[in-house]
Specification:
Helices cover 30% and strands 31% of the residues. It is α/β, with parallel strands linked by helices and 216 residues long. It has a seven-stranded mixed β-sheet, with helices on both faces. It has a two-stranded antiparallel sheet with strand order 1-2. Helix 4 links the parallel strand 6 and strand 7. The chain is globular and about 65 Å long.
């Protein structure tokens, strides 16, 4: 409730004698409010617990939820042996991949606070022995990956397409999220020009996630 609303006003509105108030902290740039440690369900497999922090990725934002759905679909079809999570934020996507049985994951981010939060979330879920974290972007890592996840903004997705595609292995898959439906075609085109093929799409509330596969 807004701060200007007193507990007495709330009690009268709901028809009770008194009511207790618990402070809430904003998450995901004010889009989600959290009263307690959130748990995120990864399909039917298990729950993930996330600490209350400012790093993006509560699992409740549509872009993260879409990425989690795409991740579940992808790991069911052909489980990869490793995942690269670009712009890992809270680490929720990398941790979800590990929870679904992927042996190891690398999460990268340019934000030191995000890496701290992701590290703490990994310890909280007892997945820290399989999650590696590194500061940087896709151009700062070497090698290729059977599955790459990138839940960032549409403009950076287009800008870093050539670098991101180089991280995708032979017939590997790339999940792109954070895409407003209005620019879906622009993001899709940027990756198709580089040899990626769209093999799946999920959408919700004006947001789109694309599942791409390498043609090489």
């Amino acid at each position: 409730m807004p701060d200007r609303i007193s507990r007495e006003q709330i009690a009268r509105a709901v028809g009770v004698r008194e009511i207790s108030i618990t402070p809430a902290l904003g998450r995901d740039d004010g889009s989600v409010w959290v009263l307690s440690l959130p748990t995120i369900r990864v399909g039917n497999l298990r729950d993930l617990k996330l600490i209350d922090a400012t790093a993006f990725g509560t699992g409740l934002h549509p872009t993260t939820a879409l990425c989690l759905e795409a991740l579940e679909e992808t790991t069911q079809i052909d489980p990869p042996d490793a995942v690269l999570d670009v712009g890992t934020g809270s680490g929720v996507l990398a941790l979800a991949a590990l929870a679904r049985g992927v042996p190891r994951a690398l999460g990268i981010d340019i934000d030191d606070e995000a890496l701290r939060v992701a590290r703490e979330n990994a310890r909280l879920n007892q997945l820290d022995d399989r999650l590696q974290l590194m500061r940087g972007g896709p151009g700062d890592v070497t090698g290729t990956w059977p599955l790459v996840l990138a839940n960032v903004l549409a403009a950076p997705l287009i800008e870093m397409a050539p670098t991101l595609v180089r991280r995708v292995g032979h017939h590997g898959r790339l999940v792109l999220s954070g895409i407003p439906s209005a620019v879906e075609r622009d993001v899709d085109s940027a990756y198709r020009r580089l040899g990626m093929q769209r093999v799946g799409t999920t959408s919700r509330g004006g947001w789109v996630a694309l599942i791409m596969q390498a043609s090489w």
